[in-house]
Amino acid sequence: MAATLHDVAQLAGVSIKTVSNVVNDYPHVRPATRERVQAAIDQLGYRPNLSARSLRSGRSGVIGLVLPELSLSYFAELADAVITQAESHGLVVIIERTGADRDRELAVLTSPRMRMTDGVIFSPLGMGQDDAGLLAVDFPLVLLGERIFGGPVDHVTMRNIEAARAATEFLLAAGRRRIALIGAHPDESLGSAALRLKGYEEALTAAGVSLDPALVRPTTLWHRSNGAEAARALIESGAAFDAVFGLNDALALGAMRVLQESGRRIPEDVAVIGFDNIEEAQYAVPSLTTVDPGREQIAQRAVDLLVQRIGSDSSRPADPSHETVAFQVMIRESAPA
Amino acid sequence: MAATLHDVAQLAGVSIKTVSNVVNDYPHVRPATRERVQAAIDQLGYRPNLSARSLRSGRSGVIGLVLPELSLSYFAELADAVITQAESHGLVVIIERTGADRDRELAVLTSPRMRMTDGVIFSPLGMGQDDAGLLAVDFPLVLLGERIFGGPVDHVTMRNIEAARAATEFLLAAGRRRIALIGAHPDESLGSAALRLKGYEEALTAAGVSLDPALVRPTTLWHRSNGAEAARALIESGAAFDAVFGLNDALALGAMRVLQESGRRIPEDVAVIGFDNIEEAQYAVPSLTTVDPGREQIAQRAVDLLVQRIGSDSSRPADPSHETVAFQVMIRESAPA
DNA sequence: CGTTGCACTTACGACGTTGTAAGGTGGTGC
DNA sequence: GCACCACCTTACAACGTCGTAAGTGCAACG
Fold first, then answer.
1. Mean pLDDT value across residues A316-328
2. What is the enclosing helix (H) or strand (E) of B194?
3. Which nucleotides along chain C are within 7 A of a protein C-beta?
């Protein structure tokens, strides 16, 4: 039903290629011809067929964004930022969710569903360092996050260790000494959890504060409910603490709720700091002090790197780059200076 | 670089079409041949070229989802649900944001960026009833939301009036009589704001409670900050109130924060109810009583309707359907029964 | 041993677009 | 009035896939 170049050409009385030239702003078209063709285009409501264009050019103008899930605020806000940045390059974004499941993550990398994209931005949560080799795919790929290092692809990460260290130092500077940490993943040596834990440890060591293992609370996931559970367990353990460091904002917010329910005042009795600076953090009661890990900049660099790889036809990057972005402690009510 | 049917055919010593038949599980292929072709496919790592397939078939397997913005939790969770549902139909989702800007909304409807999709699910926020005619596009379109009614397209909405009425009745049943409403859009007669206001009015009237205009607070947008501002204005106005109905959860949460800052106890002094049932609502302090408008079901029906329209080649629906989904009051701490 | 029929395979073209190279048209200068 | 050049337009092919229709070979049957 839709009009094609052929239809327009027939109506305007020119060849198909001349219409194509008009559509693509090819310079050598006589004004009178251009006008006539444009009239035919308008009359028929012609729109280029992008599938045909993709086939011809080998580019689809689509990039993939592979995320654990959209209902986690951090990823929703990251997706928003990626879409915005992609748009400025004239690209459109397909979002695929993996549910943090390793098998689904691997499936997405080989799936024909992603075959139409020009490249993919991938934030794994189920795969680990051992899977690094599987990232050697034959399409442009930019990796986000801390699950895997040294893979054969470009990589953009936040400065987890430094940022977590800064968060902990901030609490120490405010006079807190019994700082609980929520969200540890004891079995990992890489990944956000391990790196942020490392920053926490570094800060304590540097300040001469001994680390009490009873204050390091693991959780399986990083949702609010996990933070709430961990806070409950922490309270029940009887360990004394005057601050809580949630390894992400959702954990911190979940913990904050339980702490308040238990009658503790925030920040007087317990200071709380999070990590991610999701929009909600500033509207919580009390507002949540947290680390802004540079989400906007991550999205921007990831898209820019991907566009660059797409542009250079070289199949695999000879020089995979690893970039980190700046972070910042956002001081709010839950942990004042 | 990528292998094509041609490459596979050459390697397997068969024709291109036979390879195609293998790929597409065409039944009449001799097992021995199939095996040989499959081996060649595996060896070359052949993946079908989706652009070519799209061109040939006229279907891209992509649907568009046009939303105001992803960083609003309601839309993020809606997007998540749409992606999940689309996946079950083998479809992939492109997300486009409009920022609730009418011009951008109109632009998206005619944009070549959406041309590659088989159909679009569209949630307008800037366009209004006067623009209904502009929805007569030449691709399958399913409309979400309450900005426009009676357009030439399928339409899925929540039951705004009934749900808002139920929320208000719930507060009335709990003994509240001075119920403030936050988020009104006085200039509208359609749209979520107007409809939910109508439900509120209906409930008050039915209960014989007179509506005090001083308790109906307008906001421009529906973000947390707007809810906070409106609550501040409400307090400063000096009007007495014992409950707040936020026309969405973000407004209610923003208001709840300000109410608590002002020393009011929730729910003792002021009961608060929201609308949307975003995930965050159950983790707020106190947890937010709200209306679940049936988001999952909306996503499901929208995708199903779209798939149906895509399937039937009829250009325009002769019988645009308008579906509504079930809602439910989620009773939590901010407004107990 | 030829014919028929079936199971399998193939050649061809078209989907709509654009790069290439060749073709046409008008105008300019002598 | 002719040649030439610059400008504009065209025909053709190809991107990779799959539907159509036309083959091919083999087995069974007469």
1. 85
2. helix B191-207
3. 7-12, 14-20
